[in-house]
Amino acid sequence: MTVGEVGPAPVLALLHTAPVHVPVFESLRDDNHPGLRLRHLVDEELLRRARAEGPDAVTDEVRAALATAVAHGADAVLCTCSTVGAVAERQAAAVGVPVVRVDRPMARLAAAHRRIVVVAALASTLAPTVELIREEAGTSDPDIDTRLVDGAWELFASGDEDGFLDAVAQAVDGVRHARVIVLAQASMAGAAERVRTGVPVLTSPRTGLAAAAAAAGCPQVGQGETGVAVRGQPHRGNT
Length: 239
Fold this sequence. Notes:
By secondary structure, the protein is of the alpha/beta class. It contains 10 helices and 10 strands.
């Protein structure tokens, strides 16, 4: 490459367990990382097996998916599923590129608070999210409580996105005595636009994509990277 010549755009592969994430991350890329090329891998079976048998049961499949992404030119990989995110992250050395779990930047923000409530639509997401926040908290010992939104995942699975987001928002508004509320799954992020609570609500898509874009070598050009909504008025990070 000669002096002044611009190299090829970085490539970020995204491992999803639901196809609804594809347009969300495409939109975030357009807003904040226009120089980044995205390649989406969707495998719904990973989540089904992880829920039934535990996340470690899909280790081989996750590693194979990441290796395929790298073989097709990915400079980094973002796993958008919180249930299998830790499994994906552990494969970075094996596949030879950075592997980012979408909820780690969000967990880092949450870990700065003493009283945290984690809200999830899937029970399988709660333990990995709590473990991640405690990891990010280091030697501090935050008070972490959890809330499972009964019936929300069934609404999501049936394609009722409005019903799903309304159920999550209602659960968030029912939280008491928290200094920050964490929406554990990327699919829940839209609910932050519907809440009325005055407690900060953290979401993962924007901050997760920003971290993965940086790992792939693409800087962020947009604003609103905090992914926080306050008093029902969402920061632009809650798309």
